[in-house]
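Treating backbone geometry as a discrete language has practical consequences that deserve illustration. In the encoding step, the backbone of a single protein was reduced to a row of integers, each denoting a local shape. The amino acid sequence and the backbone structure tokens for this protein are reproduced below.
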Amino acid sequence: MTIQGAAEAATYSEAVTGMEEFGVALKGLLREMLSHHGVDVHTIDHRVKEERSAKLKIDSPDGSYGGFSDLHDLLGLRITCYFADEVDRVAEIIDEEFDPDPTKSEDKGSKLGLKEFGYRSVHRVAGLGGKRTDLAEYARFKDLRFEVQIRTVLQHAWAEIEHDLGYKAETIPEPMRRRFSMLAGVLELVDYEFQSLRKELDTYEDKAEKAAKSPATDMALDIATLSSLIRSDETIMALDAAVGASVNRRLRVRPDDLRTTENRLRQFQQLGITTISELRNAVEEWKGHMLAFVPKWIARGDRGEPVPGFFPRGIGLYYLFLVMTLESTRQGRPSGLTRRMMDLGAPEMWRETIALVGEPPSLPGS
């Protein structure tokens, strides 16, 4: 039995010939396709329908299926998205890239009434389509079909809970039906609130990016604004370049490191720096002391400490935190220095820097 011949199969084993292989190929293809379109999904899973389930469907009273070859969901895939609007986008991509069967594809959410809540997902039944089956790696799957369920993480959670309870909204006993519908409505509301929150965050991040490129702003220092400053602020980029040049180190642009940015934000907040303007002012005021301190600190490599050959973007802000913390320690305030920094002689290097450059600027709150 060839894979192409599975479309006219008389037995279950003949009908599922090549389906597992097809599922693996489709998962890889879908990942590449969605990535190309800029869509990031949570998971893509596949399964080949078990023989028992296939027989139950064929034997259903409505007589819709004459045999295994009539089943369009022998191979099923599930794409789980993060946000509700991505479900429709994924469905559009599948419609564009494959050969969908409109008579068997559906949006289960559209079947619910205005006052109803429950299982919502989009289903597509499709084949690969002529252009793709002309390629050698897909030619053997030419006559096979597959079903795709597209849903959000929360829709998936609801469907799994329904399955575990053993009831759907329309079959649950009347005393529990209202609560069941209320819970489904809450999940649907949360789905759309997450989507709305993402849009607001996108708008805020655009605002933060513009603020990082504007001369002055009292916008709060947070993850979005600090990340934008590290990427785009001329003052901070100039500081990075000056710090690198002071020890003959190259700057290397790396992907944003959220954990490092979170640590830096927390450190500045502890120092009393809470706005973009305050951070820019601190950079200007402390720059001279930083550039005098950095060569001393990097020279610790002569004491057996590894010396980096490059600096990441935003390195100047690390040294800003370090010298301000060293000054806070010198004044007897609570210290953010680690034991390792103390053991490497950071406080002594800072005193040497002050002797060379002079007294540092005032700390916030002084």
